[in-house]
Amino acid sequence: MSGGVERPELAAVPETALWTLWHRALEARRPDTVLPDPKAVELVDRIDFPFAEKFGENTLLSQLQALRAACFDREVADFLERCPRGTVVGLGDGLETQAWRVDNGRAAWLSVDLPETAALRERLLPPDERHRILACSANDPRWMDEVDPADGVLVSTEGLLMYLRPQEVRELIAACAERFPGGSLVLDAVPRWFSRRAVEGRLRDRYYQAPPMPFGMDADERGKLATAHPAVTDVREVYPEGGRGPVRALLPLARRVRQRPSVVALRFAGA
Fold this sequence. Notes:
Blueprint: H1 12-28, H2 38-46, H3 51-55, H4 59-82, E1 87-91, H5 99-102, E2 108-113, H6 115-124, E3 131-135, E4 153-157, H7 166-179, E5 184-189, H8 192-199, E6 232-238, H9 246-254, E7 262-268
Helix pairs in contact: 1-2, 1-4
């Protein structure tokens, strides 16, 4: 791509930040988009990277990724209605542009990611008083010390947990339940068959080889997440809504499929 101002050098899991950004921007460019995201389009135009050559132009995949992001947006928007001065923590935030889609002008936002991705985000989306960036692994509890829980906390882990080991997922949920009483955590999970294919290196097309995804969970297993910690008091699936074309008709039917991707919201007991 010509005219870019950034030439990122990311690989493996960090490179997925570019993959998800590309698919959101691809969908956002459509006049009938299911997820308006002008900031994602702007970032793709600023980055010197062969997006189309590397990731392809699968419009169905882009729509599905956008619908997943919209699930997280709805949960965050609902949280900000309840806690307008709360803190939204994006774990493994990559180049997520959610804050430009649902920010209420009063909330605090903390983006947490590995150093190379956090550095890229800092150059492209410079922090300010309400939008901070922390170079830190999601598994390092140090990021929790940067969160003031006084006005409410929502932890978003979009596109992250599948890259952790199952025990790490349980430990992360438990740590959040302990540190943020009354808070929420929103996650997405790939089904077990998808996880196995990724671990075996069989999740690829002619454009892209997906990284291993050790954590997989079928949609009807979501109740098991409550066993991570006694303070997990509510487990609820967040279903994609809307869609375009055949996707709109198929989404309600997809709820009957046990081995499907899912977005799940957890609530933690108050102090």
